[in-house]
Amino acid sequence: MVTTADQAVSRATPAHRHGGPVPPRRHHRPDHTAFPGPPERRRRQATLKSLIDNARSFAATHVADPHNAAAFRALEAGQSPEALFVTCSDSRVVPALITGARPGELFELRTAGNVVPPYPAAGIDGRAEGPMSEAATIEYAVCVLGVRDIVVCGHSHCGAVGALVRREDLSAVPAVRDWLEHSVGPDAALRSLAATSPDVAEAVQAHVLAQVERLRGYPCVRERVADNSLTLHAWYYEVHTGTVSTHRPSDTGQESFSPL
């Protein structure tokens, strides 16, 4: 059963309320008119310059700030995140911004479509076969860092889930096609759903629940869940409203997501 712990909800408040470093805000805005050439080229150049300018000023603007300096210095001693946050690589999903997490509080795993691949099976030589990076991240978070919560967060208007439910031709991006085919599987519940709206909310939510169940197939996760030292959460984020919903099982067996 997927539950929602109070501490997971509390992390959805802005970081400055906890007295920690305030998440950095972009101070240098792109100026498209400062570059020559076609409009699209000017836009790309201005955006990159904005990113570079903010990276250059980050230490002086945020780390050296008296309110943040001590917290940043403490990071050199190591990390002890409370949660593993599994979400999509989509640029519209920014975990630290959504949750208000401070540096060192959130361990992240980002994949195309927030997919959790099956735990790698051992081959004839005893070595694991299949996607390893994702499994390594999950094992490290659970076994070494000792996170107490894992959040799988899907989002509205997900391109990966939309491609699956719309049965799009992904032959032009074979790595994406193979990743989704291998990781989602032909019998996944979302494959039977129709893309009735652009946000593909129903399919994304079904997909998130499937990934949570996939996590239970990881030995380290299964053991920690069994002894009640690890809790799994299913979240759904609307990119256009900022609303975060969580899965709340009911006594009637109805599956539903409702706002945190």
UniProtKB/TrEMBL annotation:
<dbReference type="Pfam" id="PF00484">
    <property type="entry name" value="Pro_CA"/>
</dbReference>
<dbReference type="InterPro" id="IPR015892">
    <property type="entry name" value="Carbonic_anhydrase_CS"/>
</dbReference>
<comment type="similarity">
    <text>Belongs to the beta-class carbonic anhydrase family.</text>
</comment>
<feature type="binding site">
    <location>
        <position position="88"/>
    </location>
    <ligand>
        <name>Zn(2+)</name>
    </ligand>
</feature>
<comment type="function">
    <text>Catalyzes the reversible hydration of carbon dioxide to form bicarbonate.</text>
</comment>
<protein>
    <recommendedName>
        <fullName>Carbonic anhydrase</fullName>
        <ecNumber>4.2.1.1</ecNumber>
    </recommendedName>
</protein>
<keyword id="KW-0456">Lyase</keyword>
<feature type="binding site">
    <location>
        <position position="155"/>
    </location>
    <ligand>
        <name>Zn(2+)</name>
    </ligand>
</feature>
<keyword id="KW-0862">Zinc</keyword>
<comment type="function">
    <text>Reversible hydration of carbon dioxide.</text>
</comment>
<feature type="binding site">
    <location>
        <position position="90"/>
    </location>
    <ligand>
        <name>Zn(2+)</name>
    </ligand>
</feature>
<feature type="binding site">
    <location>
        <position position="158"/>
    </location>
    <ligand>
        <name>Zn(2+)</name>
    </ligand>
</feature>
<keyword id="KW-0479">Metal-binding</keyword>
<dbReference type="InterPro" id="IPR001765">
    <property type="entry name" value="Carbonic_anhydrase"/>
</dbReference>
<feature type="compositionally biased region" description="Basic residues">
    <location>
        <begin position="14"/>
        <end position="30"/>
    </location>
</feature>
<dbReference type="GO" id="GO:0004089">
    <property type="term" value="F:carbonate dehydratase activity"/>
</dbReference>
<dbReference type="GO" id="GO:0008270">
    <property type="term" value="F:zinc ion binding"/>
</dbReference>
<dbReference type="GO" id="GO:0015976">
    <property type="term" value="P:carbon utilization"/>
</dbReference>
<dbReference type="InterPro" id="IPR036874">
    <property type="entry name" value="Carbonic_anhydrase_sf"/>
</dbReference>
<feature type="region of interest" description="Disordered">
    <location>
        <begin position="1"/>
        <end position="43"/>
    </location>
</feature>
